[in-house]
Amino acid sequence: MKTLFTKTLSLALLAASPLALTACGESNAQEADRFAKVEIKTEKLTDGIAVLFGAGGNIGVSYGPDGTVLIDDQFAPLTPKIQAAVAALEAEPVKYLINTHWHGDHSGGNENFGKAGALIMAHDHVRERMAGEQTEGRGNDPASPKEALPVVTYHDGIKLHLNGDEVHVKHMKHAHTDGDSIVFWKKSNVIHMGDLYFNKVTLPFIDLNSGGNARGVLAAAEQALTMVNDETKVIPGHGPMATKADLTDYRDMLKSVIGAVEKARGEGKTLAQIQAMKPAAQWDTNKDAFIKGDAFVEAVYKSLEQPAHADGEHKH
Question: What is the pLDDT of residue 32?
């Protein structure tokens, strides 16, 4: 269970949604009432793979004879609705759960699913961050209970052979956070990007306090593009389903903004001067976006101040 910060963050990522929390001091009852209004919407992608849209990160579902695999699980109050959506697919209860990263809008249901018997998997840093108290930059995120923690962790990735497919889970270093993974179903040609990709709802959120770096988000998009083709169904962390062309546009946006900020920094311009140049203006079109142009430019600027991360380096 995570604090209201992560709940506020992820609900805000619904952009134009009326669900976004506006007051950090909102009571648990008010919060529960908002989750009570959330509807889980299901979109079938291929035989045996679907995506669930609700409040928080988009959920991937693989189901078949080997059991049900869930990619992320949104918030704890939504677990019964998510379980009902899985059952409506005529799928078995969740047997495997993969977290694309540690944020509460993607891992908030872990304790519920863990207690129900799901085997939870994630990158090493996801378990490390969830197992410890997170205080840097965001108030206080207490340690998660034991049942919520990933049981199987990996450094570079893991390959699963389930439901007639090869599921490639790959770590993307120091990007949205320091523990991001993408999940690719080779046979079904579906990829889940987690929060390495926000589609049409906001500019990228780089969690610098969780080891994130804009250069890593660009590198992740580049790597994902080598794995997909024009028929690939792309599940973003937030926003509607996407295609390779959409992801290519996202990559090009990242290259453009990072390149402009890097050039201006090299010329000695300050952050304020670079923000005044509005290098992200072309893509800063959603007035309800969680991350707007100036905030994204600041994250890029601060990312470029950081040295290139060594593989495996981790900072709390």
Answer: 65
Q: Chain centroid to CA 259: how far?
A: 24
Q: Could you say which DSSP state residue 120 is in?
A: E
Question: CB-based contacts of 146: which residues, under 8 Å, 6+ apart?
Answer: none
Element of type H or E holding 191? strand 190-192
In the predicted model, what is the mean pLDDT of the chain? 89
Q: Give the DSSP letter of residue 175.
A: S
Percentage of residues of the chain with pLDDT beyond 90: 81
The answer on pLDDT for 237 being more than 80 is: yes
pTM: 0.89
Q: Other CB atoms closer than 10 Å to residue 298's CB: what's the count?
A: 18
DSSP letters for 192-257 = E-GGG-B-SS-SPP--GGGT--HHHHHHHHHHHHHH--TT-EEE-SBSS-B-HHHHHHHHHHHHHH
In the chain the first and final C-alpha atoms are separated, in Å, by: 19
Shortest CA distance to 177 belongs to which of 106, 256, 82?
106
Distances (CA, A) of 164 to 64, 193, 268, 313: 8, 21, 55, 35
Helices (H) and strands (E) in the chain, counts: 10, 12
Return the sign of the alpha-carbon dihedral for residues 218, 222, 224, 228: positive
Which region holds residue 148: left if phi is over 0, alpha if psi is between -120 and 50, else beta? alpha
